[in-house]
UniProtKB/TrEMBL annotation:
Record-linked Gene3D superfamilies: 2.70.98.10, Chondroitin AC/alginate lyase, Galactose-binding lectin, Polysaccharide lyase family 8-like, C-terminal
GO molecular function: carbohydrate binding; chondroitin-sulfate-ABC endolyase activity; metal ion binding
Record's signal peptide: 1-27
Domain Polysaccharide lyase family 8 central residues, every copy: 614-863
Domain called Lyase catalytic: residue spans: 232-586
Annotated ranges, domain Lyase N-terminal: 51-216
Biological process per Gene Ontology, one example term: glycosaminoglycan catabolic process
Taxonomy, superkingdom: Bacteria
Protein name, entry field: Chondroitin sulfate ABC lyase
Keywords carried by this UniProt record: Calcium, Carbohydrate metabolism, Lyase, Metal-binding, Signal
Species this chain originates from: Photobacterium proteolyticum
Active site: residue positions: 370, 483, 490
Function in brief: Broad-specificity glycosaminoglycan lyase.
Transmembrane segments: none
Length: 1006
């Protein structure tokens, strides 16, 4: 049945009639004439550049804009398709041509970038199904002979998707509008048959058009090379036993979980039915399977309604392969032979479908980046279904396929060579266990043993190394980098996998080195210091309030404890940490570790993490996270669809969290005012101005080499922060906004001071937030000047000298800064991903510095175990200069210096060279953070320079700091990184700081 639109064009109608008489519409393949979606429409050349130009073949007959050589046979078919229910089927003879007579719009890289918001290309892609591989090539020619062209080999069976950037990967010169596409068949006397579907021109990220065995592009992802020698040693019985044990344990790992039930089996059957997978006459059909990142090519947000309807029917590869793992688990667990056969048939058909869809060795499918997230379950299911796959002849093609697609991680793990890129946390998170599976399923047992040896040595070197610059991996202070910063959202999952590998390989010839296990231990114990059990919002990158928690990696502590980190067996420190995280008991310790291990207490004291521009102070069950940013550490990771309002996460924020899930204590994005990050100094902006300034990723850095923390022997802490905004978006992010902030931590007290708070924004108020939290069952109580506040809503304005206690038992006494506003009310906000309105009941307090402040200041003290009685006592002491518990010695653009009388400790945040002239210090040579606790005869001193002194390809280098002390002093013990020079009645102590690590030293009076 012909579409009525054909009738108005006699020439085109004649072509179609001619094609019909040439048997181009095959009786066995022809579509039901009732199905007429009319999908293939001409491209409107004035569309948004981001709207993909898609040609599909869902009409009841051949589209009018398709023509072929006279002897060719062409039709539409339901036999095979990826986009909808139909494709073109072309029986070609040598040199035949197929023409798509419609215009294609090309955008230059600059135009594409302007539309997309990051470097982008105009990309052509097409799906081709080949039933029989041949040596010939298809030639694709756009517009006239001078326009873009390329060739595609037909050396494959199944679906393939070629994808090339016009400006970079094709010959010829693209025009802004190219009239038509001509596909020329190979010069082959045998001819052939191919299916064509979903012809598309679209805007795509410039990095992701990868070459494969069919098409050549300039983006080549080399294949994995394990680099084994030609001659391998004989396998020992010990190696064979170890490999068998590892394989058995890994299989058990993937079979852990719930028991089989009728309900679960029924759910699996229903799920499988929904896919409508079938195999008839050797033809496998089912839903089009696509990895999430492959959808970027479509720019789904901008698709036309017709195209969106078809693309929405695609099935996500991750969900498909996770279901394969579910099926494989049932196959393993059941003793019902009929059910076992049913699961095996399901699994094998799904495997064949993936191969038919093009997930084969040599097929890039344009791109498959972020492969591990989509397919880790596929590797696991292959291990579980090894024998059925082997018997069906599918194990090798699946194994070859997965090794091919793992090439994205060639330098990032799979080549097993330690280097700058090999510590990739995504590798540990998504593919490290998959990598072991690939090695265990190598057919040759000599290769298998050799590869396991290489793997153990590689992981050992990888975990033990400090990678250069901003590369992924573990840092000397216990942080772990991903996306060029300490990132718990990635690192925690990596810790879990790495710990399991340590456990899996323990007591085998392939076990990890002690150095690697000790470095992993340092990172994991650090994680439980800056998590309570959730990390602070300022550390969570683009995932604020996302439920990131050490609870989710608790088993990692157990596994690493069992693997041991020295020669003494079980690591009791890690075991105790595990028991605290899981709320275990001594009895649990006996059961888990076979010895009387008790849960550790909450960590206490001060900790410095300058690879994260972060200080952490822990008191009782509370964790205080002090977070900054600088040249080396980004402020926050902001996407257009994630954390879009997160600009202030690290603006010298000071978040106090009690132990327990963050939502229980009111840290929830529903109603959260993104302008009021606790402790941060901010300009309070409307949502449209606080929104992400960039269409894609924004990770703010500046030129400041400062910002970070030190601790005095782990007991007392100091944190310093200098705010400098970039000049890139002056209408959105004010480059005139400056501030200098410090936090000093002494026992149960935090002393917070700020100076040089200035900006030119006279439309909006500048604020320093004391606290913000949602009102939950745990946080209802509040005290203000001795009055218990229960009313809601509630608003109050306090003056300097007033006090309050928040719902977590923290007392605030403001000494200087301006009016203090308190609200208990329902707040309206926006979702950080999609901007939808949210609301919630919150308590908030902030210091109002006014609009466009000029060198504003603040000073306040926080009591971490406050009671009304303690706050009354503090107020009385603060009223008497002789009774004040601390003195602010200096607070200006050069330094902040605070002396805590009760502990006898003085903290110094020097923002550059500074003359101090207090009891201990005469001057500090450069930006640094110093703490001193002294007496007439001894000094305890801590010195840190947060300047990591590195670039993107180098390791941290030494940055010396010289402190001139009053009096004559000598080192209590010689130190390689500290030198002393006495100059009359003064002593110059020079400390070689590196990696931002605090240097602890003891001095004796001479």
């Amino acid at each position: 049945m012909l579409n009525s639109k054909f009738l108005g064009n006699k020439r085109k109608l004649a072509v179609i009639i001619s094609l019909l008489f040439c048997s181009n519409a095959y009786s066995d393949d022809h579509v039901n004439p009732k199905k007429d979606i009319n999908q293939a429409q001409s491209i409107d050349m004035h569309n948004n550049p981001m709207q993909s130009q898609i040609t599909s073949f869902e009409e009841s007959s051949l589209p009018e804009f398709i023509s072929v050589s006279e002897k060719s046979e062409l039709g539409v078919t339901t036999k095979r398709a990826v986009n909808g229910n139909q494709s073109l089927v072309w029986n070609w003879n040598s040199g035949d041509t197929l023409k798509i007579n419609k215009p294609f719009r090309y955008y230059t890289p600059d135009e594409a970038k302007a539309a997309y918001g990051r470097s982008a290309s105009t990309v052509f892609s097409i799906w081709i199904y080949n039933e029989k591989p041949s040596d010939g090539e298809l030639n694709f020619q756009f517009g006239s002979t001078g326009n873009s062209n390329f060739t595609m080999k037909l050396n494959f069976t199944g679906w393939r998707s070629a994808g090339l950037a016009f400006h970079r990967d094709m010959k010829g010169t693209p025009a802004s509008e190219m009239k038509g596409l001509t596909i020329t068949a190979p010069n082959s006397p045998e001819g052939g048959k191919i299916y064509i579907d979903r012809v598309m021109v679209s805007i795509d990220d410039i990095r992701y058009q990868w070459a494969d065995y069919q098409v050549s592009t300039q983006l080549v992802e080399p294949e994995i090379d394990y680099g084994l020698p030609g001659s391998l040693p004989e396998v020992t019985p010990e190696e064979l036993r170890a490999i068998s044990r590892i394989k058995s344990n890994l299989t058990d790992y993937y079979l852990s979980g719930g028991q089989l039930s009728d309900k679960k089996i029924a759910k699996i059957r229903k799920h499988f039915e929904d896919y409508k997978l079938r195999k008839e006459d050797g033809v496998v059909n089912g839903p089009h399977i696509v990895a999430k990142k492959q959808l970027t090519l479509y720019q789904a947000k901008y698709l036309s309604p017709q195209d969106k309807k078809l693309v929405d029917k695609y099935v996500d590869l991750r969900k498909f392969t996770e279901f394969m793992q579910d099926v494989a688990q049932v196959w393993h667990k059941t003793n019902d032979q009929q059910l076992k056969m049913e699961m095996e048939a399901m699994y094998l058909l799904m495997s064949e479908h993936l191969l038919d869809q093009g997930y084969q060795k040599g097929s890039s499918l344009v791109t498959t980046h972020h492969w591990g997230y989509s397919t880790r379950s596929w590797y696991a299911s292959m291990l579980l279904m090894e024998e059925p796959l082997r018997q069906a002849g599918l194990l090798k093609p699946i194994h070859d396929s997965l090794l091919w697609y793992s090439r994205e991680f060639k330098e990032r793990g799979f080549d097993m060579k330690v280097g700058p890129k090999s510590s990739d946390l995504d590798y540990y998170n998504t593919l490290s266990l998959a990598h072991i599976i690939m090695l265990l399923l190598e057919d040759d047992e000599q290769e298998r043993a050799a590869l396991m040896h290489k793997f153990g040595k590689f992981i050992s070197g990888n975990i033990a190394q400090t990678p250069p610059g901003y590369a992924d991996g573990f840092r000397p202070d216990g942080t772990a980098f991903r996306h060029k910063g300490n990132y718990p959202g990635y690192s925690f999952s990596a810790f879990r996998s790495a710990a399991y590998i340590a456990y899996l390989l323990s007591d085998t010839p392939f076990e990890l080195s002690l150095e690697a296990r000790q470095n992993l231990k340092k990172a994991m114990l650090s994680a439980r210091i800056y998590s309570n059990p959730n990390p602070g919002v300022g550390t969570n990158g683009r995932r604020p309030f996302y439920g990131i928690s050490i609870n989710k990696i608790a088993k990692g502590y157990r596994w690493l404890a069992l693997a041991g980190t020295d020669d003494s067996g079980i690591d009791q420190e890690l075991a105790a940490a595990y028991l605290r995280v899981v709320n275990g008991t001594k009895k649990d310790g006996e059961a888990e570790f076979g010895m009387p291990i008790v849960p550790e207490n909450h960590p206490q004291g001060a900790y410095s993490f300058n690879y994260a521009a972060m200080g952490v102070y822990r008191y009782q069950d509370k964790m205080v996270t002090m977070k900054g940013w600088n040249k080396y550490v980004w402020s926050s990771e902001i996407y257009r669809n994630a954390n879009r309002y997160g600009r202030y996460q690290s603006h010298g924020s000071v978040q106090i969290q009690k132990w327990g899930d963050e939502k229980q204590w009111g840290y929830n994005q529903n109603g959260w005012d993104w302008n009021r990050m606790p402790g941060a100094t901010t300009i309070h902006l409307p949502w449209e101005l606080l929104d992400a300034p960039n269409k894609h990723t924004t990770m703010l850095r500046n030129k400041i080499k400062y910002n970070g923390a030190t601790d005095l022997k782990g007991k007392y802490g100091a944190f310093g922060f200098v705010l400098q905004n970039p000049k890139k978006w002056p209408n959105v992010i004010d480059p005139s906004f400056t501030a200098k902030k410090s936090v000093f931590s002494f026992d149960n007290r935090l002393i917070l001071v700020g100076s040089n708070i200035s900006n030119s924004k006279d439309e909006f108020a500048t604020e320093t937030t004391l606290f913000q939290y949602g009102l939950t069952q745990n946080t209802q109580e509040m005290w203000v000047n001795g009055e218990k506040i229960t009313s809601f809503p509630y608003e109050q304005k306090l003056e300097v000298g007033d006090w309050l206690i928040d719902g977590m038992g923290n007392g605030y006494y403001v000494v200087e800064g301006g009016d203090v506003n308190i609200h208990r009310k329902t707040q309206q906000s926006r979702d950080n991903q999609d901007k939808t309105p949210t609301s919630g009941d919150f308590a908030t307090a902030w210091i109002d510095h006014g609009k466009a402040p000029d060198n504003a200041e603040y000073e306040y003290i926080v009591i971490l175990d406050a009671t009304p009685e303690k706050m009354v006592e503090l107020k009385a002491k603060m009223a008497n200069p002789d009774m004040r518990p601390y003195n602010v010695i200096r607070k200006d653009d050069k330094a902040h210096v605070v002396e805590d009388k009760e502990s006898g400790v003085t903290g110094y945040t020097a923002f550059g060279y500074a003359r101090i002239s207090d009891k201990w210090v005469k001057s500090i040579s450069t930006s640094s953070i110093v703490m001193i606790k002294g007496s007439d005869k001894t000094l305890e001193m801590s010195v840190a320079n947060p300047d990591l002194n590195m670039d993107k390809e180098t390791l941290s280098q030494v940055v010396p700091v010289s402190i001139t002390l009053n009096g004559a002093w000598s080192l209590a013990e010689p130190m390689d990184n500290v030198s002393i020079k006495r100059r009359g009645s003064r002593t110059v102590v020079t400390v070689e700081c590196k990696d931002g690590l605090p240097v602890q030293l003891d001095l004796n009076k001479v």
